[in-house]
Amino acid sequence: MTESTRRTRGVQRGPRSVQVVESVRVATLAEMARVGFASFTIDGVAKAANVNRTTIYRRWPSRAALLASVVEPLIERYDADPDTGSVHGDLLALTVMIRDNAALPEGRALIEAVTSGTGELRELVRAMTARTLAPFHRALDRAVRRHELDPAADVKVIAYLAFQGVAMWEQAHDRPPTDDDLNRILRTVLPPASGLRGVA
Amino acid sequence: MTESTRRTRGVQRGPRSVQVVESVRVATLAEMARVGFASFTIDGVAKAANVNRTTIYRRWPSRAALLASVVEPLIERYDADPDTGSVHGDLLALTVMIRDNAALPEGRALIEAVTSGTGELRELVRAMTARTLAPFHRALDRAVRRHELDPAADVKVIAYLAFQGVAMWEQAHDRPPTDDDLNRILRTVLPPASGLRGVA
Amino acid sequence: MTESTRRTRGVQRGPRSVQVVESVRVATLAEMARVGFASFTIDGVAKAANVNRTTIYRRWPSRAALLASVVEPLIERYDADPDTGSVHGDLLALTVMIRDNAALPEGRALIEAVTSGTGELRELVRAMTARTLAPFHRALDRAVRRHELDPAADVKVIAYLAFQGVAMWEQAHDRPPTDDDLNRILRTVLPPASGLRGVA
Amino acid sequence: MTESTRRTRGVQRGPRSVQVVESVRVATLAEMARVGFASFTIDGVAKAANVNRTTIYRRWPSRAALLASVVEPLIERYDADPDTGSVHGDLLALTVMIRDNAALPEGRALIEAVTSGTGELRELVRAMTARTLAPFHRALDRAVRRHELDPAADVKVIAYLAFQGVAMWEQAHDRPPTDDDLNRILRTVLPPASGLRGVA
DNA sequence: TTATAATCGAGACGGTACGTCACGTCTTAGT
DNA sequence: ACTAAGACGTGACGTACCGTCTCGATTATAA
User: Fold this and answer.
1) Are C39 and D118 a contacting pair at CB < 8 A?
2) What's the topology of domain B73-199?
3) DSSP D32-101
4) Of A151, B167, C115, D115, which sits most exposed with the smallest number of CB within 10 A?
5) CATH fold of A2-61, please?
């Protein structure tokens, strides 16, 4: 009896909400890929997700929230530190990760958002930036601790420039940075010794 | 597509126009200072300029055009190269100029625009960036020519990082860069020898 | 012990619905008093009743049903005829009753409903009107039977005008009818003889 | 020269606005006739008028305004007094007018509005009622002045009841009042003498 | 006592309409 | 030759209720 009434249980995964959330997530990605974050609309996402507009407003009160929910998985990657044994290697791993993230539609959207200064995103951007910069700081701190880097080195600025340099590369050069480009950046911001040791 | 149907005739010469153009320019500045580029409206400018909205549309077909007309004087400053005798000095002068420009309302607007990725601004931004980067390149080339800088130095990347580092500083640090901050950036991106010589 | 109290509660109250029904009834009254029938919402009632919205929809499929359940006790008063011995007296008693009903929040709601023409209320209103008019007709019939009223008198119209006159008074005059107002209405619609006899 | 440029002038009457206003007026009528005032929507009118919704909002800030603009011509009829020589005749003319107005879609809408008590219409209704009642008062005053009516007659109540009686007739009887119905109303509210004299 | 049948609360959803905002276009008249 | 004034279509905004549905949890009554 009970079995027959709940005939969809085995098929559907989780409640209806999950379906909706997922399809909205996908549609958001699609829309951002299509028109960019700056000019994507809730209406557009709703249509693409085949979901009612009000439903979106119920769960995501703003475009920022929508972006956040789409971008979260990306950011989480930065929580795990690489450990290659050298500053250069660690930073390279991080910059590669940023570049590869930026190649994904959600990554592009994030970059756009970071740089849009809309105000609605202020908080989100702040959090994201902090979270992305953190592993750079940790890697540099490790390098200082293991005497690979002069303690007097300006690690804050190095981290900032490396991060910024990768993140904005495509905006400025109209193409994503190659591995070589990344190395050039790192060689430029890292003190020579460590930089050379890294590539050696 | 849209271009072909546009009725806007562009900026014109004539007695009345000058009045209008100027008051719109001022009002645009005021509006950008008030609400930022991201969310300033033609309506707002029109009201502030005490000019009819249609009049603005006639002369400036887009917000980008409005921005461009307001930002031009700023950019022109970059056309004249500083000549302090050292790379460090030259680059410092340029970064100071960028910082000081960014302190003006139109400068903020420009930064916002540069980083907004709206698409309507793509072209403008490309031009601006090129124009702002150019003096960096020229300064570095001069340094190479006078053997102050190793010819093998990655001048493109140095220029790019220095520029980007200053331009985005406030976005990332919530305060404009001090002179010391600028020096830290330059010390980080410039090869040690030249860097030291610069401050010496 | 617990068993016996449980049983008692069950016997006393029947299904727990009774609780809900009552609190919804009260809340409906409160809401109608607060915002009027025209713009009261199921949401509002649900909140005020501290009951889930779906619960209301389960029992009352429409606002009309909600209104009906609240208004019923009011209407029941009209089922008992007054017997003052004179037409004027009887009609006065009826009009007083209408006026007093209209002073209650549910009465106001009823009036509003009667006159809203929403369509969803068409049937309800028809029934209510008939039921309210009936005692007028009965009173006039009695008067004819006891020769107080000329059989040629247009009792239908008299009943209709008296009823309508009281019911709409406040709409037109912005204040409820005083006893004197009611008498004026009756004196106007009743043939002189009976009218005079009534007040004598 | 001028002729060729203004080639549409002869055809279109007035500016575009006039066209819009008129088509909205017509569409409003149609919508009110279709669904009643209580549940007609701006969207519906906009679609029916083939005009954008915002355009409607620009001119008519509320449904009340829309109603008013549609109902005005109707009301104006009440500004001219009939002059038949007798109270009964005058009042009959007025009630006939009301009935005939109520037969039109805009008249129905008005009745609905008058009785909807939405609050948004409060003011409109007050004005309309006053304007419709006024000719009744004037007719009765004239009757008193020419000694056709006892000065002690309760003219206020007579006017009110006659008006109300006609206006609400259809609501209560499900059919418009015939001429005979109107006469019955008048005979009931007018003092016998004058009433008889009127028809004699 | 223990099922079974009624409710109820909670939460989500699709949907319609609201009223507002800014956009960019157009026309007419005025200076 | 320009500008002012004003209207319009368009698209999106974010909100409010509507009515419906499904899912446990709770309770009442009957086996």
Assistant:
1) yes
2) Tetracycline Repressor; domain 2 (1.10.357)
3) HHHH-STT--HHHHHHHHT--HHHHHHH-SSHHHHHHHHHHHHHHGGGSPP--SSHHHHHHHHHHHHHHH
4) A151
5) Arc Repressor Mutant, subunit A (1.10.10)
Measuring alpha carbon to C1', the residue closest to nucleotide F13 is A42
Locate the domains of chain A by residue range: 2-61, 72-199
- Find the Å distance, CA of residue D42 to C1' of nucleotide E14: 22
| Contact call for residues D153 and D144 (beta carbons, < 8 A) | yes
Is residue A106 pLDDT above 70, yes or no? yes
Average pLDDT by consecutive 10-residue portion of chain C (200 residues)?
30 56 89 83 91 91 84 85 94 95 83 70 79 94 94 95 93 92 96 52
- The residue among B111, B150, B161 with the most chain A CBs within 10 A of its CB, best to mutate, is B161
Q: What percent of chain A has pLDDT over 70?
A: 86
The whole-angstrom distance between D174's CA and the closest CA on chain C is 10
CATH topology of domain C2-60: Arc Repressor Mutant, subunit A (1.10.10)
Asked if the Cβ of residue A59 lies within 7 A of any atom of strand E, the reply is yes
CATH architecture of B8-61: Orthogonal Bundle (1.10)
For A147, phi and psi rounded to 5 degrees?
60, 25
Q: Is the pTM of this model over 0.85?
A: no
Domain A72-199 CATH assignment equals 2.60.40.1220: no
C-alpha radius of gyration, chain A, whole number: 21
**What pLDDT is recorded for position D16?**
63
